[in-house]
């Protein structure tokens, strides 16, 4: 801001000297208007002048529009004479129309009129050209049904490339130029959050445009902010399975963040991304998008991209109609996740439902198992199971449990298949089946199959459970039925670490909750009933990640009724309420639990933090709260025997670590006080250093403003005064 120049006024030598001291490095005459050359003014290099920037953290290569974004080059066409040229053009146009309206197809010919085996085509929109190229890049599966979308006939398959790509590669120099080596940048410590001295856990909340990552300081009953940004994501955020990365979604794709400052680590291109799923050990990432049809006769298309997490390299693209990828789900809707990853530490297999052709050329459902990192069919062939309806992988090893429905006088059955051997290690026939659901134990120790069966009259159903003990020899099975077969099963949940499970059952608004164990007092396999609580205001049950404790939550119509229950003692520790609560989530250690009211309700948005015993620690209100999610922890390195020993002697360990925690808290409070004192001392020192500057600046202002300097700051206020001058009353004549 330049000082105004009054008519005929010239700054005195003293004023110019003061200006040189106040503005070192600036041209003579600055800041008096008209007294200096503006081009020589030095601007602060690190100041953004208060203007927010939307530029990406890294410099991106400038992409210019060529005008040929809608044009593709199609190769792999048959060579035909002049008389078949028009017919081939029509066929190619029909094939290319799968991805959008085609404006023109042009096939070059030689002097005799024979086509050259390639063509140029132009779409109405560049997006259609991108979809056509992506579909062409999808590998073809042997005996694929339906046929590959780029398959023209038995001997010809279209290969589609963007015209811009061919033009770009044609301009690449034949002379190799070695790239300049990049400066080495050490990778951030991705596991620093696991080394917190206070043993705290992190969570992320998304409220309005703001996303914040914070520590849960349960001891001091507060949250401590780690990182916060506006518009960090366009839809939602998602932690990776072991908590190493936080993922954000954008129109161009996904990005992962991590490290002490939650910096960006990598990004994955996928236009229009909607959902994503990590492999259990965070090696691979599957992203999903969908495209609505442009014409009423077309089908919605979906796209799945498999990425390598570390390198962000695309391993494979899967594309097709929504119907093709919605097998096993109701009403043709996509059932997420479509690609399911096998358990274990290798991230070796993932699988999905698909269709194949039988010997009599009939379409039949099958399980398509892909092997990473090539993402090709295992052994080049699907896992055929007649009538397969659904499957689930074991969380701990590559064993899948598949359900096949009744057909051709053959009973329904559950089969456990071990990969890659394709060995069926256990199977069980099921009769009079109405519906089946599969529940794996979180440690892979047991498999519970909930079976709804028809009664003899076929007018009603009843529910039972077929429970397999996977760790025992020959995988023995136990059958469990409720005392009242007519009870409707509302929910089922395994204890994450242990042998127990909870069943939510009954008719009416207040169901019963029954607890069972898979082992008796001597450790023998048997389904043993432990306890039943009747008439509970409960819609969901939530086990602690460490087992033993469970929260009975009455969401929706029950307005957030909560009961904190000790299953070991079969007693209620506390009863509470979080009015209008929509979500309940345990922290990964089982010490704390969060209840939240999200934007499903317009009022009372925010979250409460509770101890595992049901004590309310603190409440945080957040307008338009969309999401609350705990950061997962890495799996423990302790063997099961050591964990059991710690649990047995927990009181002794607790006393030791409680003392350490108290000392750490006192040290943390002292660190805060020391930091505040340091900041105060720093400010006092700065003020002392600037005292002479302030005195000089004050003199400069006195010289500039003259008599107006003593007026001080002021503001203008306007007011309106109304005054009644006269009142006169007269009769009204209609």
Percent of residues in helices: 10-25%
- Please give the largest β-sheet: 5 strands, antiparallel
Judged by helices, strands and strand pairing, the structural class is alpha+beta
Unreliable stretches covering 5 or more consecutive residues: 1-8, 46-64
Radius of gyration: 35 Å
| Terminal CA distance | 66 Å
Total number of strands: 41
| Arithmetic mean of pLDDT | 87
Task: Categorize the overall geometry.
Answer: globular
Percent range for β-strand residues? 25-35%
Helix run count:
7
SSE blueprint and pairings:
Blueprint: H1 13-22, E1 71-75, H2 85-96, E2 102-106, E3 118-123, H3 126-137, E4 159-162, H4 163-170, E5 201-207, E6 210-217, E7 222-230, E8 237-239, E9 246-250, E10 253-258, E11 263-269, E12 275-278, E13 284-291, E14 301-308, E15 314-321, E16 340-341, E17 349-357, E18 363-371, E19 376-377, E20 383-384, E21 388-393, E22 399-404, E23 412-418, E24 423-430, E25 433-440, E26 446-454, E27 461-469, E28 477-481, E29 489-494, E30 500-505, E31 512-519, E32 525-533, E33 540-543, E34 549-554, E35 561-566, E36 571-577, E37 583-586, E38 592-597, E39 606-611, E40 616-621, E41 625-630, H5 640-648, H6 650-689, H7 691-705
Antiparallel strand pairs: 1-3, 1-4, 2-3, 5-6, 5-41, 6-7, 8-9, 9-10, 10-11, 12-13, 13-14, 14-15, 16-17, 17-18, 18-19, 18-20, 21-22, 22-23, 23-24, 25-26, 26-27, 27-28, 29-30, 30-31, 31-32, 33-34, 34-35, 35-36, 37-38, 38-39, 39-40
Helix pairs in contact: 1-7
